[in-house]
Structure formats: structure tokens, C-alpha cells
Amino acid sequence: MTEDVQEQGAAPPGTKTRRTVFRIIGGAVAAAAIGIASYGSISSAAAGQDIHTSMTIIAPAAAGGGWDTVAREMQQAQKANSLVNNVQVVNMPGAGGTIALGNVSTLEGQANNLMVGGTGLLAATIQYGSAATLDDVTSLAVLFEEYDVVVVPADSPYETLDDLVEAWRDDPKSIPWTGGGSFDQLVVADLALAAGIDPVDTTYISSDGGGEAIQALLNGTAGAATGGYSDNVDQIESGRLRALALVAEEPVEGIDIPTARDQGFDVTLTNWRMVAAPAGITDEETEQLAELVLETTETPEWRDAIDRYRWAERVITGDELSEFLIEERKRIELLYEEMGQ
């Protein structure tokens, strides 16, 4: 996808301009056009039908990334177990997921739509100052947490995280970074701070989804990336990418990658994934959708995905979910303030 150049973190007209944390190559104009076209196709596709008859799952990023993976694993689990007769996945990339969020916020009362989101989407609403927030949809459940990995191309001169950080510290602009969304960008900033590098001096190439980030690495546009383990595991195992660090509090069983913390860089942010529905649905529909999501997570297909991608299961619903999202927003807002935005 072709993207125009824009400074992320720039305030909209009429608001106080904030200091930009990254010099970023990226934008959302073309993505917005794609999102609007996709929105037109889903807004009337299943209106009025029972949720077990037809469902659209919206991945707010391009194909190949973490949100897309969650959406397609949910689709497969629901179809294989006849939880929903007809399930389609629609990719709606742009602006860290806020294009999709804005479109879903207009599908009021249309319970036949689910949207995947998570830490990155919440971060993007803050970073972009988007008009639509998670308050404009019906949050149903957090499903699991995912760990980021720091990766470089297989032919990169950097064999270890120390090698990468040393070169990055010597000339911060010499290594363009990329990632699949706002969460990955936060991880890069946190790693920069842990390494004693001013994040303002770092070049970050914005990608819509993990698939685009991987392509940026493989075609030489970017020199290093952070992204979800599930986004990158195939490329790591095939030998096309080299994993330098796992971003987790402690080593994870089944993932043979040293943590950044164990290598002297205390970076431990986790990327939780959630599912939401449009606002304006009834209490009964909200309950039915929450039950559908929980049923999906109990299927053999979903359990297999949990194991295959090494997702750390963490299901949060109801009042606990509302409190969790409030606290997470506060945490991310504070991180952006520390980064200078």
C-alpha cells in the first residue's frame, strides 16, 4: 500500500501541538479510502440477521498481521464448529486501526459485526487523537496477551541485540525501524529509552499490520523491527528473519529467544488482544455476542491457535474489562507523556 508522508502524533487543527516522538515515514490517506470502501460492503451485509446466521469480523489492519491472524482464527473456529453459519473477515487498515474503529462506531445497533483490537488500537486513539475511541464501541472481551520480538533480516550484520543497540546508539537515524502498529512503535520507543537513545532521533517506518512490516524488512526498507511473535514466527523458523530478543518479563516455554530483559534492557510491554462490537446493541445482543466469543475460545481450533502462536491466554469480561481498559488507557497516556507527546 502506498502511503503519504505524515508526522504521527501531530495534533488536529485547533488543538495544542505535541512534540513528535519519532521521525516517521507513513500515513493513512490511501488506507482511509480502503477502509471506507470496506465499510460500505459490511454496513448492510448482515443487518438484521441473527448473529449465529451471519457475522463479519473486522481486522483493523492489512492481511498478515496480528489482528488479521486473530480474526481468521476466530473465523475458522466458528465455521468449523457451526457457531455461525457464514463468517467473513474484512481487512480495514489505516492509522493504527482508528480508520476501522471510526467506521465501526457508525454501525450502531448492528450486532452482526465484531472488531479485533487491543493495546495498539487503544494506543493509536491516543497517538492520533482520533474522534472515535473504545468508548464508541461495545467492548466484549480481552482474549490473550502476545509478546513482541525484535527481528532483523537474516543477512543483517547484527547478530545480537547488543550489536543492534550499539550501532543504533552510535547513529540513531542510521537504522530505520518498522512495526505493525502503534503498540510496536511504543516498544521501539521503550527500547530506545532503555538503551539511552532519544526516541526523537529514531526513524520509524509506519506499517499497517505485521505483514507489511515484514515486507519492509525483507525488501531492505527497514533495518530492524518489533512485532508480535505470531506475526514473525514463520519467517523466523524459515530463516528469513533473525530474532534478537523476546519482549517479555521472563523466558517463555516453547520460545527459544532470549528476553530483552535478560540481555540488560528492561522492556516488558505486552500486547493484549480484544474483541468489540458496535455501540447501540441491546443488552441481550451484548450477552449473546460475549457468549459467542467465549464459545469460540473453547473450541479445539482456537486452543490449537493458542498453542501454535504461544499466546498467553488472559480472558477478561464484564465489569473487570471496563476497569481494565480505564487503567490501560491511563498507563499508555503516561507512557506517551514520558516520550514527549
Protein architecture, described:
The protein has 341 residues and is α/β, with parallel strands linked by helices. It folds into 2 domains: 27-145 and 271-339, Bordetella uptake gene, domain 1 (D-Maltodextrin-Binding Protein, domain 2, 3-Layer(aba) Sandwich), CATH 3.40.190.150; 148-263, 3-Layer(aba) Sandwich (D-Maltodextrin-Binding Protein, domain 2), CATH 3.40.190.10. The chain is 39% helix and 20% strand. It has 11 helices and 12 strands. Strands 1-8-7-9-6-10 form a 6-stranded mixed beta sheet, sandwiched between helices. Strand 2 (54-59), helix 2 (66-80) and strand 3 form a beta-alpha-beta unit. Helix 4 crosses helix 6. The longest helix is centred in the C-terminal third of the chain and has 22 residues, at 318-339. It is globular and about 60 Å long. 50% of the residues are buried. Mean pLDDT is 87; it is low at 1-39. Keywords: Membrane, Transmembrane, Transmembrane helix. The chain crosses the membrane at residues 21-42.
User: Could you describe the largest sheet, including whether it forms a barrel?
Assistant: 6 strands, mixed
Shape designation: globular
At the fourth CATH level, what is the homologous superfamily of the largest domain? Answer: Bordetella uptake gene, domain 1
Please tell me the CATH architecture of the largest domain by its name: 3-Layer(aba) Sandwich
Strand content: 15-25%
Radius of gyration (Å): 19 Å
The tally of strands reads 12
Order of helices and strands: EHEHEHEHEEHEHEHEHEEHHEH
CATH class identity of the largest domain: Alpha Beta
Integer average pLDDT = 87
In CATH terms, what is the fold-level topology of the largest domain?
D-Maltodextrin-Binding Protein, domain 2
